[in-house]
Amino acid sequence: MKQEKRNWAENTSALCGEESMSRIGKMPVYYGKEVQINIGSGNTVTVKGAKTSLSYKLNPTITPKLETGLLVLSRANESKKAKALHGLYRALLHNAV
Hints:
By secondary structure, the chain is an alpha+beta fold. Helix content is 29%, strand content 36%. It has 2 helices and 8 strands, in the order αββββββββα. The protein has helices at residues 2-12, 80-96; strands at 14-16, 19-21, 29-30, 36-40, 44-48, 53-57, 62-67, 70-75. The strands form 3 sheets. Strands 3-8-7 form a 3-stranded antiparallel sheet. A 3-stranded antiparallel sheet has the order 4-5-6, with helices on one face. A two-stranded antiparallel ribbon has the order 1-2.
């Protein structure tokens, strides 16, 4: 059973050399009209909804960019840390929306 799970995981992730790579960070964060997203100084992203507001201070290697109806994150380099933070911040902001 464990071998089957491992094979499934290997087949569903993209390969980057010998390690698997997540594609979470590359996907944009979609948001509706009831949500306001502001990008402040120092890479601070604020998500404001009907009930609450959340702020995230992003690492300098991650750059947020607002487009109509979506938020796109990009990373400055391809280091392991930057890739991990890219996916992490995308997931956090997606959950905040």
